[in-house]
Give the backbone structure.
Amino acid sequence: MDVDELALTSRQDSLDVGVDTGFGGLTLGSLRELQGLKGPELCERIRDSYGSVERLCIQLASSPQKGLSGDSEDLNDRRREFGSNYVEPNKPKGVHRFLWEAFKDLTLIILTVAAIVSLGLSFYHPPKTSANGDVESDPTKGLEWIEGAAILSAVVVIVVVTAVNNWSKEKQFRGLKKTIDDNHTFSTLRSSEILQLTTRDLVVGDVCLFKYGDTVPADGLIIQSNDVRVDESLLTGETSLVKKSAVTDPLLLSGSHVMEGSGRMLVIAVGVNSLAGKVFKLTMTGASMTGKPERNKNDDGEGKGDKGNDDDDDDDEEEGGEFSVKSILRSKLDKIAMQIGYAGLAVAVAAFVVLVIRFCVEMFVVRKLPWDSSYIQDFVSFIIISITILVIAIPEGLPLAVMLSLAYSVKKMMADNNLVRHLDACETMGSATTICSDKTGTLTMNRMTVVKCFIAGNSYQTDDNFRGFPKSQLELLSFAISVNTNYTSRVIFNSDVASTGVSYNRQIGNKTECALLGFVRDLGVDYAAVRQKVPEESFHKVYTFSSVQKRMSTVVPRRAVLASDDDTRPGYLLFTKGAAEILVKR
């Protein structure tokens, strides 16, 4: 009985006895216990409780070689039992939050205070008397409110335009992030086929294939690996690479980066139950980790799914936790506003003092008049004049002009397909003198092809369809390329250009390896048939590519290569590819 038959029998036995054992008796809590262990302790727990990672995979009704069946009912059962590989983000901030954030600008606060004071004083109308004591009529009576209303109107326009612009950009960025997340795929085994599934579709029990450069999408246990080293600095803070293998330390944490090697892993935790999901959830809610599974409670006290962790108080997001750095332009505007405010206050106080001194000298020294209660109205008029000077000194048009210019810049940048999230970013982009961009996939189509090769002392080119390629080298070269490349790298050849409208082949995985596989196809050899003949399990040793070594080597038994020949001598063949300067030296 092989592994796949054993997995089916295990699943069928649990159905025959009529007892709901979950997945071979495994629950979310038992899998979480494995997440808390490392190294030899984890290996010992797996060996004592399950026998091996392969046996654990079988107990989860999966297959180490074929993966899950892909049945929709089975996948839904796994999502209900162990959760889905998705962490619900906080709800987007409402427009009122953006209005409040826009209003917190220092200049706008000063303008608002000045406008309120101006409006309040506009309702006070002290009688004006002439030199002979007659009451004079004021032609501007009833229009004093216009100045304060105009200032408030400018503040409202600034706040509304800034808030609406930031809200719309935030909405666009959320949509863009959702599109990126939906397009983020990972190589997964389903029914013996390697599929590119979105990370959101992964479930517990999936068998995933990882390689150099991948980011692990869920917590898992290594089934088979080749010199795997991962970077867990984002999760643990350790900068040194950690060596992983099925024998020494099989646990792969979600969010870690595979820096060397390749292999297969069994997914044991997804979504909020994975380490990256817990960290992400804690950063959003600020809650402390309780160690309890993120699941709803059922009648047995065991939870199902991950629906019980939604927060309804996302609007209670602590503003103190929002770290914002003012741009240089905003800092300078605040500084100017404070300087103008101080200068206006000094002038207003000086004007008030001068008016009071002038009035007292004229009335009590020159005219030698006694004090009268009607003089209080004159002092109130002096206060109003001083406040008017302070209000006029504050430039209410400056923040409006800056905001309109930045909003115009945003529109211009969007016309160039440059999406700006905040208005302040225009200042940063406008000050940039040099922009560094990744070439592959950004400035190019992220596809590579072999255009020229040098074999057995001769040069061959794509333009000639590699005419004259030596037959004696064809089989060995095709075998070397097919085997000495990551099996996660493959090329989907587009044979029907007329119906699809696509004239190029789809490359999945490492683009350099895909170019070599396309080269094998151009030579008339099916690399998939070679790989099927020599599976990864038959490899003796794989020395994976790294940026330090700049080469990759695969050790294969002689009989796997020379099975059709009379030469049946034992031994191994070593296939190597890499940078020319490295291989020539060796």
User: Anything to note?
Assistant: The radius of gyration is 37 Å.
